[in-house]
Specification:
Shape: globular
Structural class: mainly alpha
Strand order of the largest sheet: 1-2
Largest sheet: 2 strands, antiparallel
Radius of gyration: 18 Å
Amino acid sequence: MGTISLEHGDRLFWLGRYTERVFTTLKSLENLYDGMIDRDPELYIGYLGCFGLTNTYSDSGEFIKSFLYDKSNLNSVAYSLEKAYDNGIVLREEISTEALSFLQMAMDTLEKSKSTKRGLLLALLPLEDILFGFWGCIDDYIYDEEIKTIIYCGKSVERLDLYLRMKYPFSSINMEFDRLCKNLRDVPKNTPYRYNTKQLSTLVEIMGEGEDYKKCIPQALASLGGLFAPVTGA
């Protein structure tokens, strides 16, 4: 396909970010749901704090409902899934109709889970498999490495962003950073959609702090947010 446009590069990047945000948010909510039932019904307040959000919910049930289904909640599964689908429609030719169909199935599955009479986690379990199916299509149906790499850069950036905010163990943080660096190395040199080497150097320094990375989370998030952006005049 040659060098992609800046607009499509941006959409590919955010397709990766939003789809990964759906998956990681879903896994986090599943863990919270279990913990709130078994141990502490107010565990969700700590989760909100990871994202600088105040508690405006009356109870854990209202929180779960909002973070799963409320499209006006920018941190919800529903919002991110809709954004991923919107980008996927524009990118249908690049990512394949099959990949787009998995995003549609994911939206349908999330919607159906609202009225489930089974346990909530059981109802949402197929959603994880559908997302794995989406990534399988990305691997199988995209032959242009530039397209695939930019999507996976978005995926890696989003996962690392969320892991940093939730203060994951350094072993998990470092593993995701290594994966991000591998994806960045695969970005074609002639693409107009490049990463910022200065921001990457800052992240390398922070990762060198090991478990002390937590002292630098705001700086790490700022560098990560500015890492992969369109470069004009390229």
